[in-house]
């Protein structure tokens, strides 16, 4: 079986899209080779075409409408109009708006010639555009679409989608969006391209905890100690508000000081973000509940064989 290519068009987004790179996660790299597209074919039969003649494109699957709708759909789905690139040893999607390939073709065969349309190499060769990988990963399109008209009036739309960009579910989301745009409708669901999740904040840090963490890290780094040096943050805590069963009388004149101790190393304090250090302070203060304070033993002295540097921050 053979087809005749009528026209090939590189369809770019109809509007300006973000110029950025999207890194690929390990899941995106499920197919290790970048020189591979995944094919899919949609078949549409034209009813009551007894003469087996090619219908006018303005009547059935107008290519101009499909191209214009594709151009508009590539605006929210802009990674599909990009190209792959290598950054160090990592593949990324270069969202450069180079476009997706749209091919128009005709065949003198009828759809019945393909039998039950069971997937095979011949069907893929006729209905899905082949990709030229010879020029390198930054040259070939990540999405290719082929509209093929058959003698019976039927139409096939063959897709070649690079798997590094999206999986099957995301591809169907794109197809549904393209269909809606071609009908003059809006997108039912906006695509999300960020490669991270906005997790809800589970711990609220106080001003003291953040400032204490900042002082601990800054003073520790300024001492010029080796990365494996252990260093502690000592926080004198007033136990009056923490002892409630029974509570101390108001105006109690004596010592109700307890020590909250955070431990880390110079390396961790230097490399970890402030949120992690402040969270360490938060968890230490949280652990100083009434049960812990009543259990705290009174020791005359604590002797250590190793030197431990301290940072004292009053609360």
Structural descriptors:
single chain; 315 residues; alpha+beta; five-stranded mixed sheet; three-stranded antiparallel sheet
Describe the structure.
This protein is an alpha+beta fold and 315 residues long. It is built from seven helices and eleven strands. The protein has helices at residues 63-73, 121-127, 168-182, 207-222, 266-271, 274-287, 290-295; strands spanning 4-11, 20-23, 37-44, 83-87, 90-95, 100-106, 143-149, 155-162, 230-238, 257-265, 309-312. The strands form three sheets. The protein has a five-stranded mixed beta sheet, with helices on one face. A three-stranded antiparallel beta sheet has the order 2-5-4, with no helix packed on it. A three-stranded mixed beta sheet has the order 10-9-11. Helix 1 crosses helix 3. It starts with a strand and ends with a strand. Belongs to the plant acyltransferase family. One of its GO terms (molecular function) is acyltransferase activity, transferring groups other than amino-acyl groups. Keywords: Acyltransferase, Transferase.
SSE arrangement:
Layout: E1 4-11, E2 20-23, E3 37-44, H1 63-73, E4 83-87, E5 90-95, E6 100-106, H2 121-127, E7 143-149, E8 155-162, H3 168-182, H4 207-222, E9 230-238, E10 257-265, H5 266-271, H6 274-287, H7 290-295, E11 309-312
Parallel strand pairs: 6-7, 9-11
Antiparallel strand pairs: 1-6, 2-5, 3-8, 4-5, 7-8, 9-10
Helix pairs in contact: 1-3, 4-6
């Amino acid at each position: 079986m053979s087809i005749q290519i009528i026209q090939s068009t590189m369809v770019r987004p109809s509007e300006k899209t973000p110029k950025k790179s999207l890194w690929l996660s390990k899941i995106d790299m499920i197919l290790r080779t970048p020189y591979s597209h995944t094919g899919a074919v949609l078949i549409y039969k034209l009813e009551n075409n007894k003469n087996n003649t090619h219908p006018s494109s303005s009547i059935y699957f107008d290519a101009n409408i499909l191209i214009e709708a594709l151009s508009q759909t590539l605006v929210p789905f802009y990674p599909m109009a990009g190209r792959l690139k290598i950054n160090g040893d990592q593949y990324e999607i270069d969202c450069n708006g180079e476009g997706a390939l749209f091919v128009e073709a005709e065949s003198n065969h009828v759809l019945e010639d393909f039998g039950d349309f069971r997937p095979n190499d011949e069907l893929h060769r006729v209905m899905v555009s082949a990709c030229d990988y010879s020029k390198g990963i930054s040259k070939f399109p990540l999405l290719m679409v082929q509209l093929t008209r058959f003698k019976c009036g039927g139409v096939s739309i063959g897709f070649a989608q690079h798997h590094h960009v999206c999986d099957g579910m995301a591809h169907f989301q794109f197809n549904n969006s393209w269909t809606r745009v071609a009908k003059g409708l809006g997108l039912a669901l906006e695509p999300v391209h960020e490669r991270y999740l906005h997790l809800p904040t589970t711990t609220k840090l106080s001003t003291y905890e953040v400032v204490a963490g900042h002082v601990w890290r800054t003073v520790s780094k300024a001492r010029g100690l080796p990365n494996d040096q252990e260093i502690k943050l000592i926080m004198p805590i007033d136990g009056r508000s923490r002892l409630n069963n029974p509570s101390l009388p108001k105006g109690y004149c004596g010592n109700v000081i307890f020590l909250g101790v955070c431990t880390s190393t110079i390396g961790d304090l230097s490399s970890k973000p402030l949120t992690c250090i402040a969270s360490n302070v938060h968890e230490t203060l949280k652990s100083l509940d009434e049960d812990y304070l009543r259990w705290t033993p009174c020791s005359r002295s604590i002797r250590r064989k190793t030197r431990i540097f301290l940072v004292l921050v009053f609360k």
